[in-house]
Amino acid sequence: MRLLEERIVRDGKVRDGNVLKVDCFLNHQMDIQFFGEMAKEFYSLFQDDNISKILTIEASGIGIACITAQVFNCPVIFAKKSKTKNIAGDVYTAKVESFTHGGTYDIIVSKEFLKPSDRVLIIDDFLANGSALSGLSSLVKDAGATLVGAGIAIEKAFQHGGDVLREQGLRIESLARIKSMENGKIEFC
Ligand code: 5GP
What we know:
Elements: H1 2-11, E1 13-15, E2 19-21, H2 23-27, H3 32-46, E3 53-57, H4 62-72, E4 76-82, E5 91-97, E6 104-110, E7 119-127, H5 131-143, E8 146-156, H6 161-167, E9 172-180, E10 187-188
Parallel strand pairs: 3-4, 3-7, 7-8, 8-9
Antiparallel strand pairs: 1-2, 4-6, 5-6, 9-10
Residues 19-21, 27, 57, 60-61, 99-100, 124-133, 156, 161 line the site of guanosine-5'-monophosphate.
């Protein structure tokens, strides 16, 4: 998506550890008008897939997932990050490694909101090593629901999480794919 690439070049800041900061329109301040443009793009990619639920992960996926869900006219579920050791049996759970903060945490979704009849589209802001997407996928599988695919705003393709998950058969559509960001210079695939 040309608009997103231009916005990343204009407003993105490359930080140590292969982190791209896009706080001024995506991760902190949110440009809702722009989210609407990204949502339309996701809709054009997945409109024939009978999506019944959008799934994302707290916190930074929630904004874009909500605006996308308006276009699809379906609910959003966000997987919660849980610190609780003894998780009750009424939730699906998976482990995720945090790219930005390090360490591992559990994510949970209540069984009440994810059913075998659901056709799920995962939406997230970033795809890096693929741990978040892989954890979300496993929640969908545990629920016996159909995972239609994943819509990602920014994929850092040089980190290969997307390659691994695509090889496993997951349909991933990323609106911007970054090939490299060496020395602060962002290049797209
Ligand atoms: P993964 O699990 O694919 O390694 O990382 C995906 C998650 O880490 C996303 O949900 C996102 O919140 C965060 N993330 C990964 N890379 C970046 C980055 O370069 N910038 C920002 N702001 N978040 C990132």
